[in-house]
Structure formats: C-alpha cells, structure tokens
C-alpha cells in the first residue's frame, strides 16, 4: 500500500501514521525524518539540504523530491509506505506522481484527517512539555500541575503552541494544503476524509477501514 496521510497540525498524523505503517508493515516517511537521516549519513542531498537550513532558507522542492526518490529506491519502501505530511504543495504532489510513474507505481489512497480548528487549538494550546525529560502531556490530564510526573521538572508550553501561534499555523496549512487536496481530489486517486476526533483507537479504526476500502490488505 502506498498512502499519503494529510491533516492539519495537531490532527494526530504522527501517531496514526506510525500505527498505520506498523499495521501495513511498511515505513512511515516524513520529510523531517528523511532530512535528519540524510544529514546523519552525510549524503550528497543531505549536505545540500543542510546548506539551506543553515542559512535559514526552505529546502527546495527538487532537493526534497530527491530525498523521496532515494528512499523509494530503498528496500524498506518496496512494499509500500505511509507518507506523513508530504506533499505540502502542488509542485511536490506533481513531483511525487512523476517519481512513482517512473517506477511504474501509483498511490493507493490519500487520507485526510479532518479535525476542526477548535479541536486543533484545544489539543495544541493545552499541550505541556517537560523541560528536562521531554515528556509530553496535556492540561486535560494534569490539570493545574506544573511539575512533570516522570522526573519532577517543570512543565512548559512551547512557544508554537500558544493559541495565537496555532491559529497562524492553521492559516498557513490551509493556504498551502487546500490546493493539494483539490489537486488530489480531481485525480484518479481522490481524497478520503477521515474523522480525526475521538480516541486514538477510534480514529485508527476509521483509517484502517478507509485503507481496506481503497484496496483490501
């Protein structure tokens, strides 16, 4: 199975992408992970990407797509993959289509985790992170507690989790991603919206049913 998993920040793509990948026995691929791996391995594309990041610039599409192509040529992705949060733009979607076409492959499904703005804001603005051990929790779980239950250090709100910042992140996401969803929606693969609210298990059940509907596994 070759899947693209989309959704706004805070929709749970990382958690659900991991579970989908394990269920399908394929790798979960995110551009962030691929960039970090390429930098660790000091590949040519990794070094090139590092020059852009060091100068504070966005890594160009051709470099990102080159990394995608390298990973898809590897043994781990031969049986499929779950792409998490990629493509982010229509040119990236077009580039991915060319890469797959060259390998005589195509996407089986594009799944979009649908979560309202209010839900995203509640999830992210309520998130708290331990300054020492990095443990992540939520005010719904810890209430007024300010100390980490694991190590006793202070729980803090990340600067990008404030309500104002989350609203801006959502605006950017919609601006970038609405055209991508429209592009896929008009393609043969289409877009399947999956309700991203509820428990992790409930959302995962909806996703697996969507995958089976796309192509029985």
Give the strand order, joined by hyphens, for the main sheet: 2-3-1-4-8
Which word captures the global form? globular
Mean pLDDT: 90
- Largest sheet report: 5 strands, parallel
- Which structural class fits the helix and strand makeup? alpha/beta
Report the radius of gyration as a whole number of Å: 18 Å
Count of helix runs: 9
β-sheet strand percentage:
5-15%
- Number of beta-strand segments: 8
Task: Give the % helix.
Answer: 40-55%
The H/E string reads EHEHHHEHEHEEHEHEH
Taking the alpha carbons of the first and last residues, their distance comes to: 8 Å
Low-confidence stretches: none
Can you describe this structure in just a few lines?
With 217 residues, the chain is an alpha/beta fold. It has nine helices and eight strands.
3D structure, described in words:
This protein is α/β, with parallel strands linked by helices. 50% of the residues lie in helices and 14% in strands. Strand 5 and strand 6 form a beta hairpin.
List the helices and strands and how they pair.
Layout: E1 2-6, H1 13-24, E2 28-29, H2 31-40, H3 44-54, H4 61-72, E3 81-84, H5 90-102, E4 109-114, H6 117-125, E5 127-130, E6 136-138, H7 139-142, E7 155-156, H8 163-185, E8 192-195, H9 200-214
Parallel strand pairs: 1-3, 1-4, 2-3, 4-8
Antiparallel strand pairs: 5-6, 5-7
Helix pairs in contact: 1-9, 2-3, 2-4, 3-4, 4-5, 6-8
């Amino acid at each position: 199975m070759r899947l693209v998993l989309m959704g706004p920040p805070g929709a749970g793509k990382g958690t659900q992408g991991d579970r989908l990948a394990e269920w399908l026995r394929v790798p979960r691929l995110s551009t962030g992970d691929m960039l970090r791996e390429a930098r660790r391995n000091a590949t040519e594309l990794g070094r090139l990407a590092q020059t852009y990041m060091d100068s504070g610039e966005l890594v160009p599409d051709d470099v990102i797509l080159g990394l995608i192509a390298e990973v898809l040529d590897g043994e781990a992705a031969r049986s499929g993959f779950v792409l998490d949060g990629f493509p982010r733009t229509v040119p990236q979607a077009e580039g991915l289509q060319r890469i797959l076409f060259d390998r005589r492959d195509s996407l089986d499904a594009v799944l979009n985790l649908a979560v309202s703005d209010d839900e995203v804001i509640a999830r992210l603005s309520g998130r708290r992170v331990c300054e020492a051990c990095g443990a992540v929790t939520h005010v719904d779980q810890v209430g007024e507690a300010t100390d980490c239950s694991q190590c006793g250090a202070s729980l803090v709100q990340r600067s990008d989790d404030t309500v104002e910042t989350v609203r801006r992140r959502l605006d950017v996401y919609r601006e970038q991603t609405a055209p991508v969803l429209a592009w896929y929606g008009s393609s043969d693969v289409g877009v399947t919206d999956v309700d991203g609210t509820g428990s992790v298990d409930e959302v995962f059940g909806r996703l697996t049913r969507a995958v089976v509907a796309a192509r029985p596994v």
